[in-house]
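Let's do one together. I've listed all components of the complex below, 288 residues spread over two lines.
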Amino acid sequence: MTVADVLLVALGAVTLGAGVLVVTGRHLVRCGLWLVVSLGGLAGMYLVLTAELVAWVQILLYVGAVVVLLLFGVMLTRAPIGPSPDLDRPRFAGLLVGGGAGLGLAALLVDAYRWGRVDQPPPGTAARIGAALFRQWVLPFEVVSVLLLAALVGAIVLSRRGDR
Amino acid sequence: MHPVIPYVVAALLFGVGVYGVLVRRNAVLLLMSIELMLNAVNLMFVTADTSIVGVPRSGQVFTLFVIVLAAAEVGVGLAVILRFFRLRASVETDGVGAATETDAPREADAPRAAVRPDPDGEAR
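Okay, and this is what the predicted structure of the assembly comes out as:
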């Protein structure tokens, strides 16, 4: 166990714990705040995995934009302040499928990788990622920009007050 | 560094997200669970990028793409949820199809109605 492994285990535990609280919590707003903890833990894991740019983009876009948007959604739909009693369906099917998917994938990956180790790759700085993005992946990049524009227009069209 | 650790974390996080999607009734919480699943996939991409030698940096580039897709998805998803909330004053996903059938005609002609000038609606 190197330092990187210990950090990965700790951050992974934080991420998973916060994720479980997101899907089991009784307070809507607190679920959103636990999501921040979970995504922040993931950003830490990206840093340990030497993906610098992705980690900062994660914090900027997920923690900064997506979670704020979700909290806006919670508040615009007039969520109650206290605990909501009726948030969950019966748990059995969810436990079966979710647990099956998670544990099955985990078993598959453990079987594939065992306890093998790899060296830390060179860090994914903005320069490296930018070079890969604009040399190999230019077309997807442009398509994604068109998709963002379409999503923007779609969101505006959907949310404007159409009645009378 | 042992790549199996982040792989297992990603698999379990995906399972947590699946559980949330299946169990949660509130549509906003459903979106949060979908975010968890997307993040599990991102973690898997980044880990594969460190542990598979050959294609340089492609995993991290794909992670960036997925993050952008998630942002677009949340924007449109919240617009749909707010629209639904305005229609039914609730964001419960139970009985969405059955209950909106009766309201469907009114919703269907809404885009045509929106063409007419709307004194207070444009700001929303």
